[in-house]
Amino acid sequence: MDTTHNGQAKEEAAAAAVRDGSVCGYESLDRLLRDNLRPEVFQEVSRLLIGLNCGRTLEVVPLADSAKALSSECDFDIQAFHFTADKEVLREPRVVRVGLIQNSIVLPTTAPFLDQKRAIHQKVKPMIDAAGASGVNILCLQEAWTMPFAFCTREKRWCEFAEPVDGESTRFLQDLAKKYNMVIVNPILERDVNHGETIWNTAVIIGNHGNIIGKHRKNHIPRVGDFNESTYYMEGNTGHPVFETAYGKIAVNICYGRHHPLNWLAFGLNGAEIVFNPSATVGELSEPMWPIEARNAAIANSYFVGSINRVGTETFPNPFTSGDGKPQHADFGHFYGSSHFSAPDASCTPSLSRHRDGLLVSDMDLNLCRQLKDKWGFRMTARYELYADILAQYLKPEFEPQVISDPLLQKKSY
User: With bands split at pLDDT 50, 70 and 90, how would you rate the model's confidence at 138?
Assistant: First the structure.
């Protein structure tokens, strides 16, 4: 046996998989495990990885033929699942159908900006049509969905993609929201023309009648790796709003906010039942955390979480650096998709593809939120007065940590 040749072939195959964004040639971890494990073994591994919903394996939902046809014609991944809740005596089920869209850009980043934006509009439209055909009530798109995630470059010309809250992209989605009686979460780069044309990273909430319900601006701005976003916009000023829609109370924790547990907590305290996390993040930096943070937030705060990440590798005309010692490069890295839903009972859906556009649909009974609050008592057993006290103390210039030292320890000077 030519082990050298076989080893080289495996290395080349692995390298090719990294380049195309797959997992050893598979679209997702779920697909890799499903195709390589015996059914009974896969079922047990799946139970450990994504949990059970109310003690049962997550149910797959059949999709409309028209939605599947759009998926095939336009080449995007489409999956659908159902989160159930226990039957109650005094309350009817509150089932809402929710969708997430992940996508890559269409044109090279050297193309005219308006052409780039409108090409993305036309790419996403069939996925929204598929969501409409599937009866989706609430739909969320990815962070800054109308543009390449160009903030890594620190070039100010990308600010041209910024739009007013009621700009072209919002109007494009308003028509579709009204057509499909659908609430749409529209994460854009916002230009606030009434306040010095300030730029913000914003999610616009469009109601099912095509009206604008409100907006939320990103609370936490990263300063790590190539996430040079603070060159363009700063921390938001809208607090932690929850939007009461025709289908439930929703909130938006934009991208980097998922790394901050208190950010998740605040949306829960304001009564959110579903929190969306539209993101743009790359594998080398964040992928090990991706399935953990949202699931933990859903558990700790007794609400559903919808996590969305874009796909593909975006290359820019001018190489850039970020002061982290790495050589100059022209791309941010691979956006690994893997959009998914997490439920308050610790179950979650399989993820969408790591390298293809996709629509993920899920039915969720919002009664599960209160049922898990009753079961685990996280709200009841929380000690908010203690947390409020330590935070109030921490904000004071004279704050000293509450550390009780062993009197026999030798004092160290730092």
Answer: very high
